[in-house]
Write a structure and sequence with these properties.
Elements lengths: L1 E9 L16 H13 L6 E2 L8 E11 L5 H9 L6 E9 L10 E11 L12 E3 L5 H11 L1 E4 L14 E12 L2 E8 L6 H14 L7 H7 L14 E8 L6
Parallel strand pairs: 3-10, 5-6
Antiparallel strand pairs: 1-3, 1-4, 2-3, 5-9, 5-10, 7-8, 8-9
Length: 250
């Protein structure tokens, strides 16, 4: 028996998120099916991030256990021949049997894309959130700085989420612009349900003038979902990378 880690990239447009659910096509479900066919045993992967319906990924991570003698590094090539075009394995490697993708010390990077222009761009419609307004990047960056550090992010978590601990650490929030596209890139040690999309929605409100940058600390302190901005649409969000600290083989 060996444990194999996969790095998975996917276009989430046609999937009801990562996690297996009844009567729905999900990324995890497709990977389980194709891995089971390939290795001729029942495979159930364990994912690092349960991305929502419509959310994309360049570097989600999952692991599975197998009795197969196929070398771990060859599984990515064989599996990609079976997967649909909108899911691709970027790497496959054997890891320690105790390695768990959700319970290791890691840094996650998410990217949220916004197109701010007079008219929507149909080429970007599946991968960016469109806004008609001109956004004040200076104010957005000022607001983003307040989010860096260790805070209770309860105001930036979906109200009905059942989670014991809402404190997270954000290491950086970068705001860049290329032509009409504005990109929020957020790196942290973990994220609450819809946290990145709520941060994006709040920063957009700042850029539009509806929220002042100096109001962000008060929003954090309130620990009240209604104080933050709206949840930005899923299609603008991408999980870029999950970087694990330390060795995965002991």
């Amino acid at each position: 028996m060996k444990r194999v880690k996969l790095i998975v990239a996917y276009d989430g447009t046609n999937y009801c998120g990562w996690q297996v659910q009844p009567n729905a096509v999900t990324v995890e479900g497709v990977i389980n099916e194709k891995l089971s066919e390939l290795l001729k045993e029942e495979i159930t992967v364990i994912g690092a991030s349960r991305t929502d319906s419509g959310v994309h990924a360049m570097g989600n991570v999952c692991v599975f256990d197998t009795e197969s003698r196929m070398p771990a590094e060859k599984i990515s090539y064989a599996l990609n021949q079976r997967l649909p075009e909108d899911i691709r394995i970027q790497d496959s490697v054997e890891v320690d049997a105790e390695f768990h993708p959700r319970y290791q010390d890691c840094r996650k990077t998410y990217r949220y894309r916004v197109v701010a222009s007079e008219f929507p761009n149909p080429i970007k419609r599946l991968y960016a959130h469109f806004v008609y307004r001109t956004l004040d990047l200076g104010k957005i960056r000022e607001a983003a700085n307040y989010l860096v550090g260790t805070h209770d992010f309860k105001s930036f978590c979906s109200a009905n989420t059942q989670v014991k601990e809402t404190v997270r650490t954000i290491y950086r929030v970068d705001v860049t612009q290329v032509d009409d596209e504005i990109i929020f890139e957020i790196n942290g040690n973990g994220f609450l349900y819809n946290m990145v999309r709520i941060i994006a929605g709040t920063l957009l409100q700042v850029g539009m003038g509806a929220i002042k940058p100096e109001e962000i600390p008060g929003i954090l302190e309130a620990k009240d979902r209604t104080k933050a901005g709206p949840t930005a649409p899923a299609k603008g969000l991408m999980l870029v990378e999950i970087k694990y600290l330390g060795s995965e083989k002991h």
